[in-house]
From TrEMBL:
Pfam families: ABC_membrane, ABC_tran. One of its GO terms (molecular function) is ATP binding. It is a multi-pass membrane protein. The keyword Cell division does not apply. It is found in: Cell membrane. CDD domains: ABC_6TM_Rv0194_D1_like (cd18543). Its main location: membrane. This is ABC transporter ATP-binding protein.
Length: 604
């Protein structure tokens, strides 16, 4: 069995109780958790800047002293300039390394915070949201926020060059310094306008990218259905129309960027012309040196890259704000299935009671109406009923996938809401009719609930579930890695692996929700024989669509329209409950078509 990968928990969390705060304040803990790295990178950037702003000054002294006045040798200034350039390059390299490390640490944390939240969300949440939407919030939205959180402070530090350059220019010539920086207030104003214009488009882009992800996700996951109904062209058209909506949003974005960015970047260049005009006039009049004009020129040029980045940062900021809100929407969705403060963690015997249980799914569909049912520990009950009558819902409430709208579901006399969720789900094993398998080995699939199980235990569970024979015949036996979702196995084989998975955990309450529907009657018979031994002492609920399955149970519960219509031994119900015989007849006619009536004999 492969060793579980190491897990490093995120160093911080995003508190859901602070939804009124600005997105940046809420994200601050994630940044501050890496403040050591971030501050080192910012400090290094600052040192780089301090070195950089010295360069024009040395140039000025070189020109004025070595070229114009000839009071000093040129080589000294050349060495100084070369030394400063090398020092600046080295410091910038270090700053960038630290900055990128900060960025990826922040991304790691954000991803893990999001995933830890998603994986704990209840069934009801996943009924409502689309996978593609969640995928895009967990990937591109997180990337957008990470970029801004890590690179934003660094760009702001870079922009400090304006302050340093201004200070140095003032020390050389205050009047010329004011002229060189005259465009700065206009730049600040434009930045504010641009932010306002770009935010709605950023929001649109991110939500439309999520729509594309949803179309792709459904088409890939449903590719077998798409092909079965020759729906390829329809899917291509659906994607094209989603992609077209993204393209429209990106074009709006590009339009806004192309209108504002060049102006924002080039405004400092206007400063160049003004320096030449005023500085040139002052030099002619003898109020300024040629070296000072060259230095001012360099300073103004030096301002351009940070201001280009400032424009980018404003765009990034708006995209990050939109993305952060999309991430917070998920993080702020609380789990409706909450544990009480001091949950019960004791094991159970398996007494089950539904007392006046009403239940409606989050979309309002009423599934159970005043359901009363008692299943004593250690018994096996078959639940039958027409399709949609509420059989699977009974199982889902038992394991607290959902909570009852009214009434109570009790295990050993205690409300299921009193138990710790992991305790409850360890005690109640559910095998659904369409099991999900992971793209790992069969052994790891069976051992999913007990990763520490030995191979012998895995094989014993597989044997009981009737899976051992076909697994041994696979090329790598239990080590065979199955294709995505187990599609390289047949439906019946997948079901048997899922039964083995539940049996390995050996829960005191086992629910088989039509778990052998895709297995042929002979194999089902063998599984039942094995289960009969294993079911002993365990409370078992079998949602049954076959007479052969019902034969396993001590009692049968007939569910109609979300309530218990009748309960008793199979023979009693057949004798005295016409609704039961009606349901059996419909089950049987459906089965007959599948099994050619083979299993009628089993029930008899
Ligand atoms: N996730 C869901 N969201 C909304 N409604 C649901 C959901 N799951 C089931 N339902 C509805 O709840 C009712 C009961 O469903 P349930 O799955 O319990 O029926 P069932 O008796 O197990 O049916 P079947 O024998 O076909 O599996 C049905 O009307 C169904 O449409």
């Amino acid at each position: 069995m492969s060793a579980p990968p190491l897990y490093r928990a995120p160093k911080s969390t995003i508190d859901p109780d602070q939804s009124s705060r600005s997105w940046l304040r809420r994200a601050l803990p994630v940044v501050l958790a890496h403040k050591g790295l971030l501050l080192t990178s910012l400090a290094l950037s600052l040192v780089g800047l301090l070195v950089q702003v010295q360069i024009p000054n040395v140039l000025r002294l070189g020109i004025d002293d070595a070229l114009v006045a000839r009071t000093a040798g040129l080589d000294r200034y050349v060495w100084w300039l070369a030394g400063l350039a090398v020092a600046q390059g080295f410091v910038n390299y270090l700053a960038r390394r630290y900055l990128l490390r900060t960025a990826y640490e922040i991304e790691y944390d954000l991803r893990n915070i999001m995933y830890a939240h998603l994986i704990r969300m209840p069934y009801g949440f996943y009924d409502r949201v689309q996978t593609g939407e969640l995928m895009s919030r967990s990937s591109s939205d997180i990337r957008a926020v990470q970029m801004y959180l890590a690179f934003g402070p660094s760009i702001l530090v870079q922009c400090l060059i304006a302050v340093f350059a201004f200070a140095l220019m003032v020390s050389i010539d205050p009047l010329l310094a004011v002229v060189a920086m005259a465009t700065m207030p206009v730049i600040a104003l434009m930045g504010v306008w641009m932010r306002k214009a770009i935010f709605p488009v950023s929001w649109l882009i991110q939500s439309r990218l999520a729509q594309v992800a949803t179309v792709v996700d459904e088409a890939i996951n449903g590719v077998r259905i798409v092909k079965a109904f020759a729906g390829e062209q329809r899917q291509v058209t659906a994607l094209a129309s989603a992609a077209d909506r993204v393209r429209w949003a990106y074009r709006r974005d590009a339009f806004i960027r192309s209108r504002w960015s060049p102006t924002l970047e080039n405004l400092p260049r206007l400063g160049l012309a003004m320096v030449l005009l005023c500085g040139g006039w002052m030099a002619i009049e003898g109020h300024a040196s040629v070296g000072a004009i060259v230095a001012f020129n360099s300073y103004v040029l030096m301002l351009q890259p940070p201001f280009r980045m400032l424009g980018m940062m404003i765009m990034m900021g708006q995209r990050a704000a939109a993305s952060a809100q999309r991430i917070y929407e998920v993080l702020d969705t609380g789990s409706e299935i909450a544990e009480r403060a001091d949950p019960v963690r004791t094991g159970i015997r398996g007494d089950i009671e539904f007392a006046g249980v009403d239940f409606a799914y989050p979309d309002g569909t009423v599934a159970l109406r005043g359901l009363d049912l008692r299943i004593p520990a250690g018994t096996t009950v078959a639940v039958v009923g027409r399709t949609g009558s509420g059989k699977s819902t009974v199982a889902k409430l038992l394991a607290r996938y959902y909570d009852a709208t009214a009434g109570a579901v009790r295990l050993d006399g205690r409300d299921v809401r009193d138990y710790a969720l992991d305790t409850l789900r360890d005690q109640v094993g559910i095998v659904p009719d369409e099991p999900f398998l992971f793209s790992v080995s069969i052994r790891d699939n069976i051992a999913f609930g007990r990763p520490d199980a030995s191979l012998a235990e895995v094989m014993a569970a597989a044997e009981a579930a009737g899976a051992d024979g076909f697994v041994r015949a696979l090329p790598d036996g239990y080590d065979t890695v199955i294709g995505e979702r187990g599609y390289t196995l047949s439906g019946g084989q997948r079901q048997r692996v899922a039964i083995a998975r539940a049996l390995l955990v050996n829960p005191p309450v086992l629910v088989l929700d039509d778990a052998t529907s895709a297995v042929d009657v002979h194999v089902e018979q063998r599984i039942h024989d094995a289960l009969r031994g294993l079911l002993h002492g365990r409370t078992t609920i079998i949602v049954a669509h076959r007479l052969s399955t019902i034969a396993l149970a001590d009692t049968v519960v007939l569910i109609e329209d979300g309530r218990v219509a009748a309960q008793g031994a199979h023979a009693e119900l057949v004798a005295g409950e016409p609704r039961y015989t009606e349901v059996l007849a419909t089950m049987q006619s459906g089965r007959d078509r599948v099994d050619s009536g083979i299993d009628q004999g089993v029930a008899a």
